[in-house]
Amino acid sequence: MTALDWTLVVLLNGSIIVYALFRAKETHTSSDWFLAGRTLPWWIIGLSLYATAIDSTDMVVDSGGAYQFGVSMFIVSWVGIVIGWLLMAYVIGLPMYRAGMYTNAEYLEARFGPAARIISVLVQVQFRTMVLGMIGQSFYLTLVIVLGMSDTAAWSTVVAIALLATIYTMAGGLKAVAVTDAMQSAVMVVASVAMFMIVFNHVGGWTGIQNKLTQHGDAESIAALLHVGTDRVAHTPTAEMTALEIENLLLLGGEHNETTSAISVRTPIWLVCLSLTITGVAYSVVNHTQSMRMFGARSEWDFKLSVVLASAVLIGGTFLNLMQGIMGRALYPTADLLPVAASLQTVDAIFPVLLRDLVVPGLKGIVVAGIMAASFSTYDSIGSTISALLTRDVYGRLLVTNRDDQHYLFVGRWLTPIIIFGSFLYLPWLDGGMFNFYLQMVGAIVSPLLTVYLMGATTRVHRRSGAIGLAVGVVYGIWWLAAQRAAADGIQLLPTALMNPMATAPVSMLLTATAMLIFSLVAGWTPRGELMHEEPEGWLRTTQHEVVVRGESSLSRTSNLVPMVQKDATSSAQDDIVVLIHTDEGITGIGETDVNPWIARACIEAPGTHTMGQGLKEMLLGENPLDIERLWEKLYVGSAMNGRRGALICAMGALDMALWDIRGKAEGKPCWQLLGDAAGDHITPYASLQPSGTSFEQYKQSLVDWACRAKEYGFKAGKMEVTFGGPYKHNGLSAPDEKVTEVVAACRAAVGPDFDIMVDVQYTWSDAERALRTLRDWKDLNIFFVETPLAIDNLEGYARLHEEAPMPIAAGEWQNTRFEFAELMDVGKIDIAQPDVGRVGGLTEARRVCDMAAERGLRIVPHCWKTGIGIAATAHLAAVTPHCPYIEFQPASLCESVLRKELVVDELEIREGVVPLPQKPGLGIELNDEAILKYSVD
């Protein structure tokens, strides 16, 4: 190592550490330390996942594994870890994220009880601190072989790295760790590329690798190194063994060939692939260093997309790193040929030897910096992860349950050095090849825990089966480890077929799953929906509620979006409540309603206090989300004492909308196909236009301009809001009724006779007589309908307008349920019914209102004044309603509401004045998570 090399090592890693300490100032609470305050974007999570997965053991230890086992080692990362990440993002981890969990162990208590949670912590502590020991050992080998350091100097350097990682991890927690991981990943990738190109060129490319391997070994061994589809055959020389030692060694399996003086153990390739896949999946699922980063995601979108980036980078990084072992095998066919001291001649020394002998100064500094960055990234990751597990799942759960947040932040920080430096206790166990030791421990201890996570997420096994399955699996694993050591003394504790390390993980998983299934057959199955529970009282529950995002089919997430509030606003598009319902199968339904979002949320989330005063959310627990009509009746009856009308029905409307979205997605059909037969191949929209201005002339001109723009946009009709009196008086303007007529006449003149005009006077007139005096003046303006001219409870007045007004009368935007519409139709005699899907009680109730209107010969023109969510639901309703000539549709480009513009990504589009029927499953929309994050006031 030259001065340039050392400069690169210090500069690249030192700058990252300094930045980590700078970012540590942002950490103030336990949520910041354990979850980065749930602020991490997908790309930081993805690179952090990669940096944590590809630590210095992958450069050193996994190269040794590839040297020993060949390209089958790729299966761990390319297949196992990637599958595990996808399972976490879409099946296992997503419900945990939605429930506001801090650790993956919390899920096991929710699903299987506290015993499973504690066992998970103990297994992870053992599992991950063992890896820390492997990192120390691998970096020690690099320092001794590459730099020629003495044992004391090398171990002192390893300790110094561990100490630096401890300092910035203690200070910043995940907020600092994830960002530095992302930066360190860049150094690691550059180092991997540089090292690969140098060794690849030295060995002579692909042809050189194959030729050199052929010169050194038999065809079967070479095939096993270069091809995944070849059985793995391991040979152990026996020339210097006694007959008793050979006999004892055969207890582990294999056949003794006296001619070659070797014991050969053949492992079928299917078993190799299965075992290595399990190893990779276990890494992603059981390992909280992975889930911790994902739980810090700022949104579900970031949560899911992060694993896509991590997988892409991992596939490339794995190839670059593990090929070092295969290329090293071509140069040094056996470990005893490695040009190092005899005490260092193990398969794990191959990477340091290649680095020392082949890499030139300058590049050598980059590679060593990459190895050091990989060590830092995993020291900090595992240190913070195990600290989180011990703090939340042991200390806060069992020992000290209700101290203030700063106390637990202090505990989490100071557990970090204990964990990192405690890992050095593993060093005496790693002499026989670190990957082999890792594989044995995964098969014996970690596989049962993986099985419990998978069974919990994908089956309804009994709650108590988790602890029983873990006990069976772990006992078998410990027994297998004991059998390995007993064989050296000639004691056979297991059949020879089970002694192969590759068989341990599959057998352990099979035993664990079988025990869980048998117990469940006897004790019963867990009912659907009873999978997630809140933390016990105290700090755990308080902090969980700080980040909770409700999930499962039994729970809903409600987001109040309020870019701004003007209490005198006449448009309800300034705020919204978005309701998400998540199913066990991973489907998310989307709904909204047009009512005060805080009141709607209370209606949904408030617990019940009476047999007919139950909470809406809790009534959905364990229910089949596809049985929508029955659920509507259950919610309506069960909440009757809380409110048979008003905000509670609006909240039901949002839930019902989301349930129809779920059903459509589950069946792969747009909602209108589930609601009935299509009335045509398109829907005709009208533009809903709201004026602006602080004077009458400004007001009139703005509305005229909006009407002209709507016609230019392709609309065939538009609704003009003209209000100078009543509760909706725009901008405080007041004018006589003659001015209303002047505005309407100006709009008609501007758009011409081939454009249908509706007029919304928004409850302006106090009685029918006054309304008729103005409406009679409009008889020659060809008005398609007049909306809500009177207070909605003045049914007698509406009946008179039906008889005497020269145009149809429309109303119903505020009506809740079909029962209120029955009064409006039968007593108020309206000509056009205007159900609002969210307010009337959802698509279920809106469809009933449409049927009632058809029976009475009335038309339907649905009201919708919110975002793309409600507009999409309205479009599906109109698609199956033949007596619906128009729907209210306000394009984002003709609107000033930021929620209308930004909340929904995939908007319905107008083509030649009509909207084609939606074709995507469910409501057919996608939310903009950034808008939810930006405008949420939760």
TrEMBL record:
The keyword Ribonucleoprotein does not apply. Its main location: membrane. The keyword Transmembrane helix applies. GO terms for cellular component: membrane. GO terms for molecular function: hydro-lyase activity; magnesium ion binding; transmembrane transporter activity. Residues 700-808 form the Mandelate racemase/muconate lactonizing enzyme C-terminal domain. It is found in: Membrane. It is a multi-pass membrane protein. InterPro entries: Enolase-like_C_sf, Enolase-like_N, Enolase_C-like, Mandelate_racemase_C, Mandelate_racemase_N_dom, Na/Glc_symporter_sf, Na/solute_symporter, RHMD-like. The chain crosses the membrane at residues 6-22, 34-54, 66-92, 127-147, 153-174, 186-204, 269-286, 307-327, 366-390, 410-429, 435-454, 466-483, 503-525. Its cofactor is Mg(2+). It comes from the Eukaryota. One of its GO terms (biological process) is carbohydrate catabolic process. CDD domains: MR_like. Signal peptide: none annotated. Keywords: Magnesium, Membrane, Metal-binding, Transmembrane, Transmembrane helix. Belongs to the sodium:solute symporter (SSF) (TC 2.A.21) family. This is D-galactarolactone cycloisomerase. It comes from Cladocopium goreaui.
